[in-house]
Amino acid sequence: MRLCSLLMLTLFIATSCKNPGPSAEDQRMAQLEPVQTEAVDGYERAYFASGCFWCVEAVFESVKGVKEAVSGYSGGTQSNPTYKQVSYGQTNHAEAVEVFYDPKVVSFRNLVLVFFGSQDPTTLNRQGPDRGRQYRSIAFYQNDDQKKIIEDSITELNDTVYDGAIVTQVLPFQKFWEAEGYHQNYEKNHPNDPYIQGVSLPRLNRFKNNFQNF
Q: What is the top-level taxon of the source organism (predicted)?
């Protein structure tokens, strides 16, 4: 099991209790102007956080039109964060993914549907067995159109599914830090890992069953 899911469980429960809402850093970041990334070989980039990046990477890479999803860290202001720092709550970053997608095949709106459809957006500072602010749900926007798509999706889901319980943060994208190499494509490279078997694959399969058109 991951360090954060086993050895640090008690610490993360305590951290979650002490930080029931957006931190001061979250509030400062929410006031910043978003950074617009440039396309790479025709592929646009989008950024999401919804728990373990091993899980989220695998979900997005299963979507038609997504070339690649990269595991990393975003949502904080600290430079060059490491997995150890993020896992121990020493930064305000969340585990996040950078999604390279072909907008001719899959729209940003549909990526937002994938984002919400592959997690529980009502659990504060937690996703599945992983607890702590580094596992909080965040949808990052790079422009006003993306912000509106995210906010409209939250409004609709709150009205029709979650009865106003969504705790996902909507933040202007600032910077994505790529995670250490051994985290990349972890689900593909370590199919027999207990965490992959017990958490990542069931999450991926639930998404595939519910969103077969993607």
A: Bacteria
